[in-house]
Amino acid sequence: MPDTPDAIRTAALRKVYPAPGARRGAEQRPDIVALVGLDLTVGGGEFFGLLGPNGAGKTTTIGILTTRVKPTSGAASVAGADVVTNEVAVRQRIGVVPQRPNPDRSLNVRENLVFHAAYFGVARSVAARRAAALLDQLGIGDRGDAKVDQLSGGQQQRLMIARALIHEPRVIFLDEPTVGLDPQARHALWDILRELHAQGRTIIMTTHYMEEADRLCERLAIMDQGRLLALDTPQQLKTRAPGGTLVELVLDGDATAAASRARELAGVSSAEPQGSVLRVYADRGGELIPALIRTAGLEGRDVRDIHLSPPSLETLFISLTGRKLD
Ligand SMILES: Nc1ncnc2c1ncn2[C@@H]1O[C@H](COP(=O)(O)OP(=O)(O)OP(=O)(O)O)[C@@H](O)[C@H]1O
Ligand SMILES: [Mg+2]
């Protein structure tokens, strides 16, 4: 990992939130451990993803790295500045797109950008020029005079991105930036993020969409219940998905007997029945299909449908947690 000033580093980062509704005399509920002890390094210029289900600790991690949330213990630095002792420097060097858009609704679109830039010491004339260029680039160049409430959800999200960029930060944090966007707006946002990455900025994005993480991120941390379960390139993570390709055969009756036979076939790492569906994991799934059809036939079953799924982040996540991501 190159030791660039853009790198993010965390060491044994821990966050405990007090139990909700803790009052004297009330029944004591346990505190919420949102981060168990996170060790993470992100290199300058990386496109890095935090992937995990609800409550994994993604927003808490982003909150600490962006100085909005105080860590309980451990250390974290962003672009070389400590998030606790050097908060002002961290804020200068980062742009943040929060999970819920929080523009100033009393201002119009352009003013949102110019006021935000002023907070970081950017001269008004410079900010106005940058605002116009950013709004153009984000496809809302004609909405500068609009009130925020006149924007669609996708347009508000773009305004949040423009705001995150107006002071030209080195590191950009985006917390679930594509939630609630239609596919067209989502793909437009992907293009924008790829462009920012091509400009050399460090991007840290959280998501619970496997496909998004897979397609955009150079490296991914898979989180669950405040812990890092795996960290690697999407490609490497997928090869770690156990058992290879998933072959699902829909039979014309119960799959139990066919599953027992399928387990005997060379190349099959597991075969489980679920009602009339036979689920087989195999290294080279496609090549096994004729043998699987014959195996089902020996138990008097016809195959009505076949579905092949290559190893994926989804199959890896299921193997790591025993649960589906969504
Ligand atoms: N301000 C808070 N006070 C108390 N508990 C909190 C607070 N913020 C988060 N938590 C709890 O900490 C845990 C981690 O939450 P966090 O928001 O970091 O997860 P997340 O991965 O971003 O989830 P999501 O996908 O739902 O956004 C959850 O159990 C959550 O309920
Ligand atoms: Mg979150």
* Hetero compounds: adenosine-5'-triphosphate, magnesium ion
| Unreliable stretches | none
CATH topology of the largest domain, what is it called?
A: Rossmann fold
Q: How many domains comprise the coordinates?
A: 2
- What is the CATH class designation of the largest domain? Alpha Beta
Strands in their spatial order, largest beta sheet: 6-7-8-3-9-10
> How many whole angstroms does the radius of gyration measure?
24 Å
Q: Average pLDDT value?
A: 90
The main pleated sheet reads as: 6 strands, mixed
Overall morphology: elongated
Give the number of helices.
11
Helix fraction, binned, reads 25-40%
Q: Which percent band covers the strand fraction?
A: 25-35%
Task: Find the structural class using helix and strand composition.
Answer: alpha/beta
Secondary-structure element pattern, one letter each = EEEHEEHEHHHEHEHEEHEHEEHEH
Instruction: Label the CATH architecture of the largest domain.
Output: 3-Layer(aba) Sandwich
For this structure, what is the CATH homologous superfamily of the largest domain?
P-loop containing nucleotide triphosphate hydrolases
Q: Count of DSSP E strands?
A: 14
Quote the distance from N terminus to C terminus.
Answer: 32 Å
